[in-house]
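=== Structure Prediction Worksheet ===
Name of assembly: unnamed complex
Input type: mixed (protein and possibly other molecules)
Chain count: two
Listed entries:
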Amino acid sequence: MMDDLKDLLLSIGPGVGCAVHWAIYRYYRNLDKTHAFERETTIVGKPVTGFDKLVKRDLKKEARIEGENTKDHRQRVKRIPGHEPGSG
Amino acid sequence: MSNSNDASLPPTPSLPGSVSPRERPSAGNPPINQASVAQVVRDERQAPDPLAIDTSSPELKDGANRCPNCGATDIRPTLGSDELICHYCRHQWVAVRVEDAFGLGDGIDQLEGTVIASGAADIAPDASSMVSFKCSGCGAEVTINTENAMTARCHWCRHVFGVNEQVANGAVPDAVLPFHIRKEDAVQRISQFVGKRRLFALKAFKEQFTPENVTGVYLPYMIVDGNASAEINGYGEIAKGRKTVRTGLRTRTLHVADVYRLKRHADFTVDDLPLESSAERGDLDTSRNTNNIINAIQPFDTKNAVKWNASWLYGFSSEKRDQNVAQLRQRLEDQLLSIARAQVETSVDGYDRGVRWESERLDLHGSRWVTMYLPVWLYSFHQPGAGGGMLHYIAVNGRTGETMGSVPLQRWKILLPAITVGGVIELVALWIVSWLP
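=== Predicted Assembly ===
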């Protein structure tokens, strides 16, 4: 237990150093900046519909769901073919 | 058709006065004799595309944009407004907004199929960038290279010409959004942006920094309206407490979670979604370029775009479109799916352990495509390096003044604060550890 705490304390220094480097790099290069079209485009939507179905109660090791992508709007997942206009 | 038939073609007609580049036959390709083409083929060739919105300006096809007051051709934009001014009689007039002229903002929820404005039509593979005009003032030949310019002055009689007709080389859009931000303002914004980032900037960049070299450039975009539905499927989890499990001598805590299968359906319309219609600008891979900087200064107030007239480009450079609707369709679908995912986000707020979307489907019922030149003040710096180095941009939105940039870094300089701060904290940590049992 005490060893874990010591390891944690000793890892803070390098961690903060990396964070400082990353913050400066990001401030100068702005690699993460793009047009937020999801928010900055005029979008008119009808109320969202759908369903939620309880599948099971489970025991999980992690505090969050595996592969969470709620906020990663631009991360594409498996594409189901859609209806093409004019295909009937 | 045999060679003997080719030989019987009528001689190239001499076209007096002003003619459009489309009407001007090139020396290498004799014009098709319309009388020799079958009636059915002729009808199909000449019939307008039923889905197209015709944004062309036949009155400007001779390249001369004339002042409605005096007929002079020295027409220029009035910076800071959506007005053109005649530099001969000082008459000013307001440009026509494409949204009003062609109803582009209407009926998005009724859109079906793919509606393409005439300026967004496919680029002809053999279309030349060079466009020639016969000067209506003196008859001289004036050639414009549409790769980077859309206006020229007749070197004999000083008439000003612009490429106004929608030639099939992608250079003429349906609309243009005029510059509102002046060069002095852009210079100030760029200086301010760099001023905040001088400390760790590359030495060569600081030495060569000359914001006065900023260039006003019109960049090509497809502005798309879309009527779509999306279906998204996945799993969400709700925390229901913790449970301690003993395995041999060790105990560990597990999370109890209710797992739900989720399905969401969203119907939505999108108004004026901009897509870069130059392949180079559309490449946003930040490991190779800094095009994301130009992308990030959006949005533009595209609702105020005016009908195309080459006079708007006076004093500015422009980049030609090289992407057609078919090539941009995948990017549109990706962006619509991203919008759908953002739309459904609030509907899964209750899943405190998060949601994992696993599949998605898009039904694009209808889309409307319009090409537009958008105004950007651009400052660039080439940083030498492996693989050709990196071109860093600092860009200012020519309408809103929104500024974004990529400032090259002196690598060793940013290591100093990182090592210093990290080192100090590490010393404190070592001191604390030395006191622990």
